[in-house]
């Protein structure tokens, strides 16, 4: 058993159960540039949660490298001193989620159940294991747990053309087959959707500026190299800006001043 008065985060392992994380990847929320709206939405929801107000399960979805995972870790960092705890579970271990719920339901701490890169491929029906947390069973959903999931897709379950074979049109009204409705309804169980997109070059360069803020360097050279780097990678995401900084922080000419 984990002593949650002393531990702040854990990862679930199928062979060992909950394992406390000693070297937590804390993220300063002020380091996330260009995500003002996303930050305010997730901060408000999390604050409501720890204050026993109504709060939603959250789906953070959108393009790769745009800060979805970093934002979850940053909000946890901001509130971990307020009895908030974080548990990471991988999507292929979701069948063990009811065991986690049983173990923590009566705990005095609040828990974010964090599932990164959540999606269900090739007809997987493992999403049904989310139901006890999101909808309950004969037991009500736990009040001290929410799921924060990240995904590159808004509809978490893969959809195929043959899924629509049983769709019918009656008097101009579309009637979807049960299988299609079930797949679409999974995302609907997340009360809060937060979307992430790559910005334009100006927004990308603002993130680059933040990473190089303590460097006295030639800005024209910095921007030219940053744009070339982004173009070669076909990405203007925050992750690309950070990778550029790590790769080039010692190579750009410093100002004579």
TrEMBL record:
Domain of life: Bacteria
Gene3D superfamilies: P-loop containing nucleotide triphosphate hydrolases (3.40.50.300)
InterPro entries per UniProt: DUF815, P-loop_NTPase
Organism: Campylobacter majalis
Taxonomic placement: Bacteria, Pseudomonadati, Campylobacterota, Epsilonproteobacteria, Campylobacterales
SUPFAM superfamilies (alphabetical): P-loop containing nucleoside triphosphate hydrolases (SSF52540)
Name used for this protein in its record: DUF815 domain-containing protein
């Amino acid at each position: 058993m984990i002593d949650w008065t002393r531990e702040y985060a854990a990862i679930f392992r199928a062979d060992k159960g909950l394992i406390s994380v000693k070297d937590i990847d804390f993220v300063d929320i002020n380091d996330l540039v260009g995500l003002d709206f996303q930050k305010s939405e997730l901060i408000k929801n999390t604050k409501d949660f720890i204050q026993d107000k109504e709060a939603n399960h959250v789906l953070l979805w959108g393009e790769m490298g745009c800060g979805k995972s970093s934002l979850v870790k940053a909000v946890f960092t901001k509130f971990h001193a307020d009895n908030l705890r974080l548990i990471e579970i991988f999507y292929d271990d979701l069948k063990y989620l009811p065991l986690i719920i049983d173990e923590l339901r009566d705990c005095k701490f609040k828990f974010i159940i964090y599932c990164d890169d959540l999606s269900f491929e090739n007809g997987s029906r493992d999403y049904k294991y989310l139901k006890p947390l999101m909808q309950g069973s004969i037991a009500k959903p736990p009040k001290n747990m929410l799921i924060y999931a990240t995904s590159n897709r808004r509809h978490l379950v893969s959809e195929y053309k043959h899924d629509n074979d049983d769709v019918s049109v009656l008097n101009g009204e579309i009637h979807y087959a049960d299988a299609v409705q079930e797949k679409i309804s999974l995302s609907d169980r997340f009360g809060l959707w937060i979307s992430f997109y790559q910005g334009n070059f100006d927004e990308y360069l603002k993130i680059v500026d933040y990473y190089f803020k303590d460097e006295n360097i030639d800005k024209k050279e910095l921007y030219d190299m940053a744009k070339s780097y982004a173009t070669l990678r076909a990405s203007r995401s925050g992750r690309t800006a950070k990778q550029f900084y790590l790769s080039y922080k010692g190579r750009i000419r410093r100002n004579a001043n």
